């Protein structure tokens, strides 16, 4: 038994003895005096209970009165707990205030959304970029406030590995990049970064490359034309001019190819509005095989296998350019006598165009970077083949434009396989159509 309880028990015993003693000495009625004392004791207990209950009921806002015995200990302990609770709350509030102040000062927007997608918190920047209203929008579904279909699809998909870039719903000139992080029970923390400046720079870069490529075409055509004319009359010139003219002609052709590829890339990047057309794959692939055979000048065995006669919805010129790049690379990087195998097949409903060769192959560490512009696995060799270093970048963009992807596998010294994979949705069977 704790000392408080022992003291309380002792006090009760003393009171009862006192009551019995006084009742006996003064009134000769010890039993009645005992009952009276018991009643007074119980009434006092009830009074303390009532005070405690009233204090709890009033939200613990007042100070508990001092009292005796066990109730005194209970009141003091309650008061102490209340004080430490208040301090704890004040500390938490100070932390929340600091977090709110620091997020308010952030230039990036911060939003917190619960598992059901309802807005819980946002900072001042979010208010400026998204036009949120405090406190009206608290608890509103975020997809009601940012109504762009891309955002809704991105938010609902719950795969936030890649950020999403869209225009601000209140100012279309501002580009916003959304990064979403899941935490707790599918709650979401959304960070929004204004990337308008970056977008403008990217646009400027695209425009610059497109304009320069376009502007350089005419002077280059003139120079190439004159070189050709001079070559035709080379017997009238000193013999060493012949080699110089030959080199000038080769380099101007290289520059023409470079400009052609740069223009193609910028066309792909700017994204066109034209509609995809149905493309017969067999004639397209046959034509590419014939071009490759003429490039190889019968130095390689080039075979084409088409497992399924199909049509594909897409852009003819882009596909021809992408497939040709892969096939010509296979010819360029395969020594004489090698095999180049082209194959169209479907797997898992998806269309595959693969180009395999048993040529020089590519070291593994180069493979992830091959589709970068001007990236070459073996620069000296690639330049010697007359390559621009843009071929695989074009392939990547063409495939992106067709919702496809490029897979590369290669073993150095043994050969490579480049496979274009197209979604099932863009394919149709020629045989099925004929039967309909
Ligand atoms: P390039 O015009 O230099 O061929 P590409 O973008 O088409 O540029 O290819 C990038 C690099 O990838 C090439 O420089 C070459 O090193 C490597 N490459 C592409 N295809 C093959 C292949 N079939 N075999 C070996 N290396 C290849």
List the helices and strands and how they pair.
Layout: H1 3-27, H2 30-57, H3 69-105, E1 109-113, E2 119-122, H4 124-130, H5 142-145, H6 149-157, E3 164-167, E4 175-183, E5 187-194, H7 196-232, H8 239-270, E6 277-280, H9 281-296, E7 301-306, E8 310-314, H10 316-332, E9 339-347, E10 350-357, H11 379-384, H12 391-401, E11 405-411, E12 415-422, E13 427-429, H13 430-435
Helix pairs in contact: 1-2, 7-8, 8-12, 9-10, 10-12
The structure holds adenosine-5'-diphosphate (ADP).
Can you tag this structure with a few keywords?
single chain; 436 residues; alpha+beta; Beta-Lactamase; Helix Hairpins; 4 domains; five-stranded mixed beta sheet; 13 strands; binds adenosine-5'-diphosphate
Molecular structure report:
With 436 residues, the chain is α+β, with helices and mostly antiparallel strands. The chain has four domains: 3-100, no CATH class; 106-194, PAS domain (Beta-Lactamase); 204-269, Orthogonal Bundle (Helix Hairpins); 277-435, Heat Shock Protein 90 (2-Layer Sandwich). It is built from 13 helices and 13 strands. The strands form three sheets. The protein has a five-stranded antiparallel β-sheet, with helices on both faces. Strands 7-9-10-12-11 form a five-stranded mixed β-sheet, with helices on one face. A three-stranded antiparallel β-sheet has the order 6-8-13. A hairpin with a 3-residue loop joins strand 11 (405-411) and strand 12. It is elongated, with a radius of gyration of 42 Å. The model has no long low-confidence stretch (mean pLDDT 91). Bound molecules: adenosine-5'-diphosphate. Adenosine-5'-diphosphate is lined by residues 325, 329-330, 333, 357, 359-362, 370, 376-378, 382, 387-393, 416.
